[in-house]
Structures are given as structure tokens and as C-alpha cells.
Design brief:
Chain A has 354 residues and is mostly helical. Helices cover 70% and strands 3% of the residues of chain A. Chain B has helices at residues 56-63, 86-91, 109-114, 126-140, 155-168, 185-200, 212-218, 241-249, 313-320, 343-348, 358-361, 369-373, 391-404, 421-435, 451-466, 478-484, 507-514; strands spanning 18-27, 30-40, 45-50, 71-76, 79-81, 94-97, 173-177, 204-208, 221-226, 229-235, 272-282, 288-298, 302-306, 328-333, 336-337, 351-354, 439-443, 470-474, 487-492, 495-501. The chains are: A mainly alpha (354), B alpha/beta (528). Bound molecules: adenosine-5'-triphosphate (ATP) and magnesium ion.
Chain lengths: 354, 528
């Protein structure tokens, strides 16, 4: 007879998830170390180097913060959309749209930073919102699946960026490839190279968490995501809520683009979104639908990205780095699933049935 | 302890199909089952009774592998068994029809029947699946439309699909959790005939029901749970309904005529609160589901709506609560025309709604008890002020509702789907009564309630009446309808056949009307 098995519960307690995720990360680190050792690298030196260049030094921490900033916002964009049960796969495109709009303002208008930066911020937000408008209306009024529409617009935004940075907006001053000239204004720096966008992003994420749990609007979004029919029954204007959530989601991703262009890169460049939009989906999945969890999830993602770059300086190819990233996320997914299982204690001896 | 006397008719030495020994199942803060022993023999229909939250559904979920017991053992045909998943139980011949449907709403009937079925043909076109479904449905005597989408079916029709799903999988032990709650009397009759035929082939049935008459009619033996423990098992022949009720609840239940108003009760208001004038509704396919209905609702009056389910009751409820737009006719609230179907507008006007299918339309099952209890009052103080949502105030509200509804909840932050079916219904009812300052539309509010709770629920309706609220009470139970209604309307094929004075009504007249025949002496159409 089989021993009393494990039981899968529909929900998993947060504590178990945390423990199993830590275990998953540790386990994947061992696997990675093993593979690296077999291929002739020294895992210990590598680990030392990675630690020193991320958490262990001021420059490392600054880098981490810069990576986290866009991830916080794109992660929040996907999370907020998920609350009403929709997937915004287009944060990448909205990121570009925000970056393009902000760049347009910076290149087109002249004035002091105090005037330009707020306009650029608004432009970035509007750019992201504009980019998600069509998917939003198609979803709200025609029921068109938002996953496909938001995804397809990513490619358009990315190509548009290439066109602008090699065409009308190309750098005519220093001749940088696939790039605009350096923008005349920049988000001021707060700590080393970390600009003020970073604390703002943290504040936004915390604020969103509060909005979702503490406002009527947030309540309606949660109900609408959990059971649209019950939302209708309660008289919640589900369509309007879908529109507002999706536009907000686009705005967050657009703002991420603006921060990146005006705070970190200082130019619009082809490919500058760097997958931050797609990684936002990963961050949202790691955060399991909670805005506050976006902060540690973005930190983890930033650590992985940053370590990847360090490894590339050590002659590990980009695809190895990608495989390592995949392995860690895969193990975390397994850990999440295992957290649903609970062993069932048996107190009675079994078998006999007279 | 392990007394093994096979009942008459079972060959000596035959083991029971199912034996439970000392089953214990605990949830945080709740003992759902404790020390439960149960024997079910081949060729018997075994009824399981108990109040809401007594642990009936949990016990059956343990038997079918949805839950693992913390204590005790499950013995099938004399051999100990552990099921880690419902599929294993089905393979061992145990099939269950759940209290809350587990069908895929977007799939057709045929697709749902074939879903996850070992014997389904590898490559099956819709036509093949539909033909097979038609054959199965005829074999077991449950008519279904194989090509219909489940989301378009009424509750009763959906249940038929659930039952067929299990019967088609060759179950030897069929477990049914409150199967008749959503069936019409005819459908119940058909179900019982099918169950008896099933029993005659040496199979066994466990049936959970709150309807004692049905238990008396269909079962061979009865087991009663109270507070998670078994009180006893009895031969149905030695029982009667009042004794069962008393054993179940631990006290006597008195049923009385509740039509009489106490002193100080609000009189029937002369002017109607809500009026329907020649209202018709067409569904997506262009079929008229509500035909030319005219109706006046008066404060201080209970209007009962009788009729076999699926004759337009759902549409009527939805029109009365602003969930469904009419295709023609007029709706008046307080004498002024309502030009659009807007549930928020009706709720603000003081129209409460206990819907037919609470899990699907009145609750967000995955969200917390507190969140669900705030669903009607979150826009208003103390929960909603200046666009904010005060979770603390919502918690206070949830506690209030739970206390009034007499539901003990160990943890208000847990998902509401963890509550027993009857307890969810009680909470929804109390939540809706709170906002029903003018009108309460209650569709089958007693569904899933134990008989003590039914009496309480009917009491809620008369309390509202006495406060001057107009109550629309839709039910299939004529006795309940006659007990509380002032007038009774009968629905047939989307038409309101007739509205008669409950004083003058008798079961026979209503029965005729339910069958679509207009009895002499009643005016067709509506009153006035
Ligand atoms: N998954 C769960 N988590 C926590 N508590 C649960 C869970 N499932 C059931 N319970 C609790 O166990 C108790 C028994 O519930 P159960 O659903 O078995 O009652 P029942 O006898 O079927 O009642 P009803 O007649 O209302 O359907 C209830 O108090 C319920 O809240
Ligand atoms: Mg139950």
C-alpha cells in the first residue's frame, strides 16, 4: 500500500513559498557552480567576483538600483493589469513609446530642466498610454484578446525606435550608432549614478499597493478580476475599470521608458528597452499578484541581470547567462508549485479490514 | 466494533462497497469531520443528513480523494485505499456529483461529458461526441442538448450534465451532493427512477439532501452528522421526517403559517414600488424567454413566484434587478420610468437580490469573506468615504453579517469558497437583506439550507415584509410559497400565467398553472 501521500491545496501560504523559493535559488546556485566547475571555471572566484560587483560594493549597489528602476515599473504595470484578470504583454512597447515621447520633448523643446523634466514625464506617461489605447478599446468594447494585441505592438514600437535613431533623430553630433544625441537634460542624480527615478519608482509601487487595497477603485478592480459576473451584479462598471487599469498599466511602462532615457541612458537608443518589458512579466509572476512583492521580485531579477553582465566579462557567453537565468526562474516555479503540497499525517494504522 | 452484518438482500460474506473507519478531517479552526464510521452496502441508497456546515461535503470529498483525511481509513470492497486524486476514485468506481458544478462553462455539453474520460475516442469530431452523448443521455434517461454550451444552460440542465458525466464513467458508488436542490419535481422524479434502476443493478448511492421527504422516499438507510461527528445510522423505514429533523438539529423545528402579520407590521402599500408593464426579453438566439409580463410590487407584501425552473424565472429576476435589458415594455421604479438596465441604479434604489446561483454571480469565491461581504456597501460610509476603501470597517461589517446569519467563521481572511454551501447562502442572504430597503428579489433563497435554516430564511422574508419592503420570493417549494406569500404568480414558458391570492390558492390550482393550464376562476395575465 502506498504511504499517505501529499495533498495539493488550492492556495499556498506565503511563508512556505518564501522558504521553497530560497531553497530553489540555493539549489540552482549549486547546479550552476557544478556545471561551471566542470567546464573549467572556478565557481568560488566567480561567486566572489559577482558578490563584489553587485551587493558587495557601492558601484555594484548603484548598478542594481539602476536595473531595478525600470523593472519595478514594468513589473507593477503587469501586476496591476493582472489584478483585473488581464495580461499586458506589451510593457516593452509602451516602454519604447514613453521613451520616444520623452525624447521628442527633450529634442524639440528648449528650456531649463525644471520645465523640461515635468513635460518629459507627462509625455512619457502619455506615450505609454497611447501605445496601449488600441488594445484597451479593443478589449473593452469588442472583447479582443489583449495578450495578442499588446504583444504585436511591441515589435512596432521597437522598429519605430530603430527608425528614429537611424533616421530623423540620429546623432549628428558625436555620430553614435543607432542613437540620438545626448539629451540636453537629465533626471538629477541622488546617490552616485542612481537618479531620482529609483526612489520615485519605489514610492509608486508602494502607492499602487495602497490604491489597490485601500480605495474603492482598487476594490472594484479586485472584484472584477476575481469574478466579472459578480462585479456586474454589484453594479461595478467593469468596462470602464478595464479601460482605466489598462491605461494605468501603459502609463507605468511608459514612465519606465522615460526614466531610462532621461535618467540612465541619456539618449534614445535602438534596443534600449533591453527586455525590461518582458522581464516585467517575470517580475509580476514572481510577485504573485501583490504590488508590494514587486519590490523584492525586481531586486532578484536585477541581481540576476547584473550577475549575468559580470559573468559575460569573464568570458561566459551571453547564451550561458541566459540559460542560468532560465534555470533559476524554472527552479523557483517548481518551488512555488511544491509549496501547494502538504504532507498528510496519518494517526491510525491501516490495512486491516475484517 | 467492526460489526459486519450484511443487510437482507446482500449475499452473506459480501463486504460493503465502502467502509469508513474513524475518519477525521480538520481545517484551521474547524473540525470538519471527527471519528466518522460509515458502511455503505451494494444495492443500497444511503442518505447523509446534517445541518449546514455539519461536514457532509467534506466527508464525501475525503471519500473521492479531493481531500486526504488526517485520521482514519477508507476501505473499498474490503481493501484499504488511499486516493490522492479524484481521478483515482473514479477509476475505482466512485463518482461524485458536486454541490457546486464543476463544468467548463465555455464547452459544449458533449465536450464536458468527454472531458478527461479514458473511454473517449482518441480522435473525436464534435459530431461523434454529440452522437455518443445523445446515446448516453438516452440510455440513462436524462435528456440533454449535446451541442449546447454549458454557460447557456439553466442550473437544472447543468446538473443533468454533471450526473451524466459520472454515470457514463461506470460508477459503482455514486455520490450526490444535494442533487435535487436545483431540480424540478419532475426532474427529481426522473432522477429517483434512474437511481433506483442503478441500485437494482447492485450499485450503491450516497445522497446528501436537506429535503427530508425525499430522503424518506428514496433512501434505504440514513446517517446523520452533527458538528462533524456521526450521530447515528438508521433504517429509513424506522424514521419519520420530524424525528430526522430533531436528530439532525438537536431540537424540534416548528413550522407555522407565516402569512399572518404581527401587530405593528407595515400594511400593504397602496402605490406599487416597482412595476413591469408588458415586459418581454429575447435571448441571443432570438427566443423570447420572458413574454409580456406585467407585475406590480407593493411594499409590505410578499409576491411568491411558482413554476418549474427554466420558465423565465431567471430572466424575471434579472429584469427586476437591472441585470438584463428588456426588449420591449416598461419598468417603473417609484412611478418613474427606468430607461436602462443598470444594476447599480437598482441597488441604490434599495433593491436587494439573492440570485439563483450564488457562487457564479453573487460572490468572488477566491476572495476573502470580508471582501465578499462588502460587495454591496463598499461605496458608502463607513467602508467607502472619499473614494477610499476602509478594510477595517469592511471587517466589522462582515462580522455583523456573519453573526446575524449565525455562521461561525474561523478566519475572515480566508477565501469564501472554503465555507459550506449553505453558509455561503446564509451570508449572501443577510448581505442582500441589509440593502433591500424597498425591494428584495429572492431566487430560491432556501436552496442548500438545512431545514432549521429554511425556517429562519422564511422568517427573514416576513420580517422584511413587516418592515414595508416588497418581497419577490421565487421558489419551487409550494409549501414554502403558500406559507409566506400574499399573492402567488405562476410562470410558464416565460409568461406570468396568473397572479392569485395565496389565501384562495391551493396546491392543485397552482400545479395546473405550472403545467401551463389556466384554471377556471383566475384571471389570466396580471392583477389590475
Ligand atoms: N477548504 C476548507 N478550508 C477551511 N474550512 C473548510 C474547508 N472546507 C470546508 N470547511 C469547513 O468545514 C465545515 C464543514 O463544511 P462542509 O462543506 O463539509 O459542510 P456541509 O455539511 O456540506 O454543509 P452544507 O449543507 O451547508 O453544504 C464548515 O465549517 C466549513 O467552513
Ligand atoms: Mg455541502
Amino acid at each position: 500500500m502506498a504511504a499517505r501521500a501529499f495533498q495539493r491545496l488550492p492556495s499556498a501560504p506565503a511563508g512556505r513559498i518564501l522558504v521553497l523559493r530560497l531553497a530553489a535559488i540555493v539549489l540552482s546556485l549549486f547546479i550552476i557552480a557544478g556545471v561551471l566547475a566542470l567546464s573549467g571555471h572556478s565557481p568560488v572566484t566567480l561567486a566572489e567576483l559577482i558578490l563584489r560587483s553587485t551587493l558587495g560594493s557601492r558601484f555594484g549597489l548603484e548598478d542594481l538600483a539602476l536595473f531595478m528602476c525600470p523593472l519595478l515599473l514594468t513589473g507593477a504595470a503587469v501586476t496591476v493589469c493582472g489584478t483585473i484578470g488581464l495580461w499586458n504583454i506589451g510593457a516593452e512597447g509602451q516602454f519604447y513609446a514613453g521613451a520616444i515621447a520623452a525624447t521628442g520633448v527633450a529634442l524639440g523643446l528648449h528650456g531649463p530642466a525644471v520645465v523640461l523634466l515635468p513635460i518629459m514625464t507627462i509625455a512619457g506617461i502619455l506615450g505609454g498610454m497611447a501605445w496601449i489605447t488600441v488594445p484597451t478599446l479593443a478589449r473593452a468594447y469588442a472583447g479582443v484578446n489583449e495578450i495578442i494585441t499588446t504583444l504585436l505592438l511591441n515589435f512596432i514600437a521597437s522598429l519605430l525606435t530603430y527608425y528614429l535613431t537611424t533616421g530623423p533623430w540620429r546623432d549628428r553630433i558625436s555620430g553614435a550608432q543607432v542613437s540620438t544625441q545626448r539629451l540636453p537634460v537629465a533626471i538629477p542624480e541622488m546617490w552616485g549614478i542612481v537618479h531620482w527615478g529609483f526612489p520615485v519608482a519605489i514610492v509608486i509601487v508602494v502607492g499602487l499597493a495602497l490604491v489597490l487595497s485601500r480605495t474603492r477603485w482598487g476594490y472594484e478592480i479586485r472584484i472584477g478580476g476575481a469574478n466579472p459576473e459578480a462585479a456586474r451584479y454589484a453594479g461595478i462598471p467593469v468596462r470602464l475599470r478595464i479601460i482605466s487599469v489598462m491605461l494605468l498599466s501603459g502609463a507605468l511602462a511608459g514612465l519606465a521608458g522615460m526614466f531610462e532615457v532621461a535618467g540612465t541612458v541619456h539618449r534614445l537608443q535602438g534596443g534600449m528597452a533591453n527586455n525590461f518589458g518582458y522581464l516585467g512579466i517575470v517580475v509580476a509572476v514572481l510577485a504573485r499578484g501583490s504590488c508590494l512583492n514587486v519590490i523584492p521580485a525586481a531586486l532578484l531579477m536585477a541581481l540576476i541581470l547584473d550577475s549575468g553582465i559580470v559573468m559575460q566579462t569573464q568570458q561566459l557567453s551571453a547564451s550561458v547567462v541566459l540559460a542560468i537565468t532560465g534555470l533559476i526562474l524554472f527552479m523557483i516555479a517548481i518551488g512555488d508549485e511544491l509549496a501547494h503540497y502538504r504532507p498528510v499525517a496519518s494517526t491510525t494504522p491501516k490495512g486491516k479490514a475484517s | 466494533m467492526n460489526k459486519q452484518s450484511a443487510p437482507p438482500g446482500v449475499a452473506p460474506g459480501t463486504p460493503p462497497v465502502l467502509q469508513l473507519r474513524g475518519i477525521g478531517k480538520f481545517f484551521p479552526g474547524v473540525i470538519a469531520n471527527k471519528d466518522v464510521d460509515l458502511d455503505v452496502w451494494p444495492g443500497e441508497i444511503h442518505a447523509l443528513l446534517g445541518e449546514n456546515g455539519a461536514g457532509k461535503s467534506t466527508l464525501m470529498n475525503v471519500v473521492t480523494g479531493i481531500y486526504q483525511p488526517e485520521e482514519g481509513e477508507i476501505i473499498l470492497d474490503g481493501y484499504g485505499q488511499t486516493f490522492t486524486a479524484p481521478q483515482e476514485a473514479i477509476r475505482a468506481g466512485i463518482g461524485m456529483v458536486h454541490q457546486h458544478f464543476k463544468l467548463v462553462q465555455a464547452f459544449t455539453v458533449a465536450e464536458n461529458i468527454h472531458l478527461g474520460w479514458d473511454e473517449a475516442p482518441r480522435i473525436a469530431s464534435p459530431a461523434v461526441m454529440e452522437a455518443r452523448t445523445r446515446e448516453i443521455s438516452e440510455r440513462f434517461g436524462f435528456p440533454v442538448r449535446p451541442d449546447a454550451r454549458v454557460c447557456d444552460l439553466s442550473a437544472g440542465e447543468q446538473q443533468r450534465v454533471e450526473i451524466l458525466r459520472v454515470l457514463a464513467r461506470k460508477a459503482r458508488l455514486l455520490i450526490m451532493d444535494e442533487p435535487t436542490a436545483v431540480l424540478t419535481p419532475e426532474e427529481t422524479g426522473e432522477l429517483f427512477r434512474a437511481l433506483k434502476a442503478f441500485r437494482a443493478q447492485g450499485n450503491a448511492v450516497i445522497i446528501i439532501s436537506h429535503k427530508l421527504d425525499e430522503v424518506m422516499e428514496i433512501s434505504d438507510r440514513v446517517s446523520i452528522l452533527r458538528g462533524g461527528r456521526k450521530v447515528g445510522t438508521f433504517n429509513t423505514a424506522d424514521c419519520n421526517p420530524s424525528m430526522l429533523a430533531a436528530t439532525m438539529v438537536g431540537r424540534d423545528i416548528v413550522r407555522r403559517n407565516m402569512r399572518a402579520r404581527p401587530e405593528g407590521a407595515a400594511p400593504i402599500a397602496p402605490d406599487p414600488v416597482m412595476q413591469l408593464r408588458n415586459v418581454s426579453v429575447r435571448d441571443d438566439r432570438g427566443v423570447e424567454t420572458l413574454r409580456d409580463v406585467s407585475l406590480d410590487l407593493h411594499g409590505g407584501e410578499i409576491l411568491g413566484i411558482a413554476g418549474v425552473a427554466g420558465n423565465g424565472q431567471r430572466e424575471l429576476t434579472h429584469v427586476l434587478t437591472g441585470l438584463m435589458a428588456r426588449t420591449s415594455g416598461e419598468i417603473l421604479l417609484d412611478g418613474s420610468l427606468v430607461d436602462r438596465a443598470d444594476p447599480a441604479l437598482f441597488a441604490r434604489a434599495g433593491v436587494g437580490h439573492i440570485p439563483e446561483d450564488r457562487l457564479r454571480s453573487a460572490l468572488a469565491p477566491s476572495l476573502s469573506v470580508t471582501t465578499n461581504m462588502a460587495l454591496r456597501e463598499y461605496p458608502y460610509p463607513p467602508i467607502g468615504t472619499h473614494g477610499l476603501y476602509d478594510a477595517q470597517a469592511a471587517g466589522v461589517l462582515a462580522r455583523d453579517i456573519a453573526e446575524l446569519a449565525q455562521v461561525t467563521i474561523p478566519d475572515f481572511a480566508m477565501p469564501i469558497r472554503n465555507l459550506s454551501g449553505g453558509n455561503q447562502q446564509r451570508l449572501v442572504a443577510r448581505r442582500e437583506i441589509r440593502i433591500a430597503s424597498r425591494v428584495l428579489v429572492a431566487a430560491y433563497p432556501a436552496r442548500g439550507l438545512d431545514i432549521g435554516a429554511i425556517a429562519t430564511m422564511l422568517g427573514y422574508l416576513t420580517d422584511l415584509r413587516d418592515q414595508g419592503v416588497a418581497v419577490v420570493f421565487i421558489s419551487e417549494d409550494l409549501e414554502d410559497l403558500l406559507n409566506v406569500s400574499d399573492r402567488i404568480g405562476v410562470m410558464f414558458h416565460g409568461r406570468l400565467m396568473s397572479v392569485i391570492d395565496a389565501e384562495a390558492a391551493d396546491m392543485a390550482t397552482i400545479g395546473l398553472l405550472m403545467g401551463g393550464r389556466d384554471a377556471a376562476g383566475t384571471q389570466p395575465g396580471a392583477t389590475q
